[in-house]
Design goal:
By secondary structure, the protein is an alpha/beta fold. The chain has 15 helices and 16 strands. The strands form three sheets. The chain has an eight-stranded parallel β-sheet.
């Protein structure tokens, strides 16, 4: 069913990373009551929904993407009642709540994996995961996304597959018990009132039956070869019937509950298969996130993704930052065309911070001018940069660990938020504890330094979100204009100046907002986006 009025078609969805949003009890780790206590700010920002990264019971080897119990709340984050309160309070403020679902793998501490270890080779308990006995050598050549072999051997001789950390065994989606379990988990959270699920590694659940060797390092973070066949562990045809069965469950509930695919699949037409009318509602637009700050590439990815989604009647999404990539305020401070890196350390080349922020603000205004649904990552509304000089001893990301420290990992984008410039931990919590260190320079980014300050990044986001709603930009369309990089969306002109010279606003256009002040002659400087009413 195509629901053209559905709330999510033009929604701005804000990603909350619970560990780092707000800490109510002073242990240095964010929690659910902390989030509830700060919802007022998200309402003031003007977003439509929050997506919460995992808060379930977990040993936290992959920051909660290693789930030990899909129906609970980790004591670090609170208890089930806190989740209920958060959902109720968010709804009271007109904010929808999307939770994270991690179906590709469980934690090795999940009761099922513990039972599989205890039951031994050949047992039905092991059939819920991907166990093989292949002697001394691993069953095939697959690599973990985080580095090293994707197989781990047990003392009893069996190997199990883990496409991520060794503590994240892959589930066997050929087993009906696994399928039934996740349908039940969906209902558990739908019954509690959540408005949807962000589906982790949505392209990975089904593996090719023979587990054929795959020689290139399998990395979802680096993208896939769009020309070749899908690798045997990604984007297999069988994933689609799983999402169709989930969709049927969601459609039983009122109010438009949604599924959002985290699927690193290319090209856009192939990704669009995840959002056909009887499957998911949205998929993250990673090609957009990856596009360099150059007009030709941006225009191409905008056209390609709009076309691919239009073809299946889906809404296109846009995203610039999340908890797995270098924050765009830093990423865009590197020379244009620098490949996306999984992290930055003190010894690496450093971004140009001022240029990065300037381009990030222009990039955000451009993104929010596009029709469809946009995803924001906590802290980008403050202009937060990556923590690029984090001492290695604080790093927790298993991708850093398993790559033998070759990759910097993702901790730099996960640092706890600054709320109050002069408070301990910048108001993240009541004490100065913070699970990752906050840079000494972050007072200037604190929310209380930006509220009511014209031109601050916070006020820019607020203005943009309110104008976006007022002018119906999320429901509009892209009509490219001649000359500069500019498109018309309804009665609004969105123009980004990628050139080296300032450009004029078209005559008769009335400026609504600009990512930086115009120059003394009222012209649009380099690396600035404007919205103007036509
Ligand atoms: C997704 C998550 C990432 C996690 C991985 C394994 O890519 O976004 O944070 O490490 O899945 O669950």
């Amino acid at each position: 069913m195509l629901d053209t009025d559905a709330w999510w078609r033009d929604a701005v969805i804000y990603q909350v990373y619970p560990r780092s949003f707000a800490d109510s009890d002073g242990d240095g780790m964010g929690d659910l009551p902390g989030i509830t206590g700060r919802l007022q700010h998200l309402q003031e920002l003007g977003i439509d929904a929050v997506w919460l990264s995992p808060f379930y019971p977990s040993p936290q080897h992959d920051a909660g993407y290693d789930v030990a119990d899909y129906r609970g709340v980790d004591p670090r984050f609170g208890e089930l009642g806190d989740a209920d309160k958060l959902i109720a309070e968010a709804h009271g403020r007109g904010i929808k709540v999307i939770v994270d679902l991690v179906p590709n793998h469980t934690s090795s501490e999940h009761a099922w994996f513990q039972a599989a270890l205890a039951a031994g080779p050949g047992s039905p308990e092991r059939e819920r995961y991907i166990f093989r006995s292949s002697g001394e050598e691993p069953p095939n050549s697959w690599k973990s996304v985080f580095g090293g072999s994707a197989w781990e051997r047990l003392p009893d001789g069996d190997w199990y597959l883990h496409l991520f950390d060794v503590s994240q065994p892959d589930l066997n989606w050929d087993n009906p018990e696994v399928r039934a379990e996740f349908l039940d988990v969906l209902r558990f959270w739908l019954d509690r009132g959540v408005d949807g699920f962000r589906v982790d590694v949505a392209h990975g659940l089904v593996k090719e039956a023979n587990l054929t060797d795959w020689t290139t390092t399998s990395t979802i973070l680096g993208g896939l070869d769009p020309a070749g066949p899908p690798p045997p562990m990604w984007d297999q045809e069988g994933v689609h019937e799983i999402y169709q069965s989930w969709r049927r469950v969601l459609d039983e509930y009122p109010g438009g509950r949604i599924l959002v695919a985290e699927a690193w699949v290319a090209p856009a037409s192939r990704l669009a298969r995840y959002v056909r009318p009887d499957e998911m509602h949205q998929a993250f637009n990673f090609p957009y996130l990856d596009a360099p700050w150059r007009p030709a590439e941006l225009r191409a990815v905008i056209d390609e993704t709009l076309e691919a989604n239009d073809a299946v009647g889906a809404t296109t999404t846009w995203v610039l930052s999340n908890h797995d990539v270098v924050r765009h305020a830093s990423r865009l401070g590197f020379p244009v065309g620098t490949p996306r890196m999984p992290g930055i350390g003190a010894e690496d080349p450093q971004p140009d911070a001022a240029l990065g922020l300037r381009r990030a603000r222009a990039a955000t205004l451009l993104m929010l001018g596009l029709p469809g649904s946009a995803y924001l990552y906590q802290g980008e509304e403050l202009g937060l940069p990556e923590h690029t000089t984090m001492p290695d001893e604080f790093r927790e990301d298993p991708a850093w660990e398993r790559s033998g420290h070759a990759e910097r990992g993702r901790d730099g984008c996960r640092v706890p938020l600054p709320w109050e410039a002069d408070a301990p931990s910048y108001g993240f919590g009541p004490t100065d504890a913070s699970w990752l260190p906050q840079p000494a320079t972050w007072a200037e980014y604190a929310l209380d330094r930006q509220q009511g300050v014209p031109g601050s990044t916070w006020e820019l986001y607020r203005t943009a979100l309110s104008l976006r709603r007022e002018h119906g930009l999320g429901r509009g369309s892209v009509v490219w204009q001649e000359g500069a990089f500019a498109f018309r969306n309804g009665d609004v002109l969105v123009l980004t100046n990628f050139g080296s010279e300032a450009v004029e606003l078209p005559s008769g256009a009335r400026l609504l907002v600009s990512s930086e002040p115009l120059d003394g002659d009222g012209r649009i400087p380099t690396d600035v986006t404007v919205w103007a009413a036509l």
